[in-house]
Design a protein that fits this description.
The protein has a domain of 41 residues. It is built from 8 helices and 5 strands. Strands 1-2-3-4-5 form a 5-stranded antiparallel beta sheet, covered by helices on one side. The protein is elongated, with a radius of gyration of 27 Å.
Length: 252
């Protein structure tokens, strides 16, 4: 549970960093060379969205290159597509997970009692019944708008979904039953994949990828290590040869 909680906190707390990175001009490319391959992403269903974003970017770039720089409006894309794609993918995954958990674990809101016509023996009895209905209506209204209740409309952002799922993982009070082990596992898988994407987009996590080309000395497998602000380094898993900095990029 601790790992799942940490992943959910990463998604919630790093969301502002992703927003800031959207408009930044720098780009983080991993693996750091064009021929790097064979590394897996935790959320494979984003591949279609990534391809669409790439096609959009390519079309935009062609339009930009065809424009005369002196023309009004000749500007580069205002947002970093890879960051935008990460945010869309992570938000979709977390919100979808929260939808599923809420559908299974969250109880329905308390019904609002309707006013009814009744004959009361005394005015006092009528006032007591009226006050009881008012209290019941207030209770039902408070339960319906309870901020701890997951809603299928309104605020459906990645940070909100991450914090709501975190509350379920940590067994916080609310209009929900305790989640089952299977539900906790589902949240853990989604949280791990989402946090990995966030960390990779911000370059705050160590990464490992396999280089397609074999070791020039022995033909063994070469792995590239980097990320988290560190310079890339490569080594052969067979003979142990190491490459760092520009040499590592040349090997790739």
């Amino acid at each position: 549970m601790t790992t799942t909680a940490a992943h959910l906190r990463t998604c919630a707390l790093r969301w502002t960093d992703l927003r800031d990175a959207l408009a930044s001009t720098g780009t983080t490319v991993w693996p750091p060379a064009g021929r790097m391959s064979d590394y897996l992403r935790a959320l494979e269903d984003a591949d279609v969205e990534l391809a669409e974003a790439a096609r959009w970017q390519a079309a935009y770039n062609r339009q930009f290159l065809d424009r005369d720089p002196a023309q009004i409006g000749a500007t580069r894309p205002p947002l970093r597509i890879e960051i935008l794609d990460t945010m869309r993918t992570v938000q979709a995954a977390l919100v979808d997970c929260a939808d599923g958990i809420a559908h299974a674990a969250q109880r329905a809101p308390i019904n609002v009692p309707a006013a009814r016509k009744a004959d009361y023996r005394t005015l006092r009895d009528a006032r007591i019944a009226h006050q009881d209905r008012q209290r019941a209506q207030q209770l039902a209204h408070a339960d319906r708008i309870d901020p701890r209740r997951w809603k299928w409309t309104g605020t459906r952002t990645a940070p909100y979904a991450a914090l709501w799922l975190l509350a379920r993982v940590e067994r916080a009070p609310g209009p929900c039953r305790r989640i089952t082990d299977d539900e906790a596992h589902r949240i853990g898988v989604v949280a791990a994949g989402a946090a990995e994407r966030v960390e990779q987009a911000l370059d705050i996590a160590a990464r490992v990828a396999v280089i397609a080309a074999p070791c020039p000395d022995c033909g063994g497998r070469v792995e590239m290590h980097g990320g988290a602000g560190a310079s890339p380094a490569a080594h052969c898993t067979a003979c142990g040869r190491m490459w760092t900095g520009q040499d590592a990029a040349a090997v790739a």
